[in-house]
Amino acid sequence: MSAEADLVTSEREAIRQYADWYAQQGYQVSVEPSPRELPEFLRTLAPDLIARRDGENIVVEIKTSSPASFEAVQRLGRALEHRAGWKLQVVYVDLADPEWKPPPRLPETKDLSARLDLIGRADEDEDQTRVEFLLLWSIIEAAARHRLSPLKIPPTSRISSSALLKMLLTEGIIEDDDYAVLRRGLASRNAITHGFLNQVVDPALFEEIHSVAKGLLAARKKTISARTPKR
Fold first, then answer.
1. Which helix (DSSP H) or strand (DSSP E) does residue 40 occupy?
2. Spatial separation of the C-alpha atoms in residues 119 and 202, rounded to whole Å
3. Among the residues of the chain, which ranges form H helices?
4. What's the CATH architecture for 3-92?
5. How buried is 60 (Cβ within 10 angstroms: 0-12 exposed, 13-18 middle, 19+ buried)?
6. Closest by CA position to 95, among listed 27, 158, 139
7. Would you say 29 and 50 are in contact if contact means Cβ atoms under 8 Å apart?
8. For 17-42, how does the pLDDT look when each residue is reduced to its tens digit (9 = 90+)?
9. Sign of the dihedral defined by the CA atoms of residues 161, 162, 167, 173, in that order
10. Where does 109-227 sit in CATH, by number?
11. Of 187, 173, 184, which is closest to residue 207 (Cα–Cα)?
12. How far apart are CA 185 and CA 231, in angstroms?
């Protein structure tokens, strides 16, 4: 089967699953609605699915790694911005990508916590600080993937760092202040990973990100403990 056919199958399956879920919650669902079914501000944007219930309108759009998909999500976001009663839900589809071949599972949260406890204890030179900052960021993304797994997002899906942070915010897992800290951290992480080994790591920012990572992992462990049946 061609890559293009795989893409279509994957998108179709995602749309079907979300259509079924919203229908079960009592929403009126329109899959790939025609222009006549859409308000004027959406008629040229062709959303994948709309779910309506009691004045609430949810536009579901499937997001893939293609530039066209990214642009479609951006256009829908602009169209729905500040419109009362309308919300955009972006669904990230996992596509085969030869440049993305992680191990089949994430490290366990206990292992991530153990690594986190060893980071930044002693004064290091600038290069060592940059190395530890990258390890800290890896722990942040692993913790984010663990926290998002209840949303039926496979932990090994290819999702950009920026999208992971946004999903943590929109799902209420982190607050605006933590999101702002992580966005600043992402800027430093990007500079270092893309060759700027003269990027200075702000010690205060390092500590703030360390604290966010600890909170994400602690909350995840509490969730696992609550779901474990008592013997």
1. none
2. 15
3. 3-24, 67-80, 109-117, 126-148, 161-170, 176-193, 203-227
4. 3-Layer(aba) Sandwich (3.40)
5. buried
6. 158
7. yes
8. 889 989 999 999 999 988 888 889 99
9. positive
10. 1.20.120.330
11. 184
12. 42
Residue with tokens 């169209």: 79
> Tokens representing 38?
């859409």
Tokens (6 digits) for 89: 């839900």
pLDDT tens, position by position, 82-124? 899 999 988 877 656 667 788 889 999 999 999 999 987 655 6
Exposure string of 144-163, with b = 16+ CB inside 10 Å and e = fewer, is bbbbbeeeebeeebbbebee
* Rounded-to-integer distance, Cα 139 and Cα 217, Å: 9
Q: Which long-range contacts (CB under 8 A, 24 or more apart) does 106-111 make?
A: 106/142, 106/145, 106/146, 106/155, 106/156, 107/142, 109/143, 109/146, 109/217, 109/220, 109/221, 109/224, 110/221
106: Cβ contacts below 8 Å, ≥ 6 apart: 142, 145, 146, 155, 156
What does the block give as tokens for 176? Answer: 């605006």
**CA dist list (Å): 96 to 48, 63, 64, 123:** 21, 14, 11, 42
Which is it for the CA torsion 211, 217, 221, 222, positive or negative? positive
Bridge-based pairing state of the strands 56-63 and 86-92: parallel
Pull the structure tokens for residue 153: 């997002």
Packed helices 126-148 and 161-170: angle between N→C axes, nearest 10 degrees: 50
Domain ranges of the chain: 3-92, 109-227
Burial 79-110 (b: 16+ CB within 10 A, else e): bbeeeeebebebbbbbbeeeeeeeeeebbebe
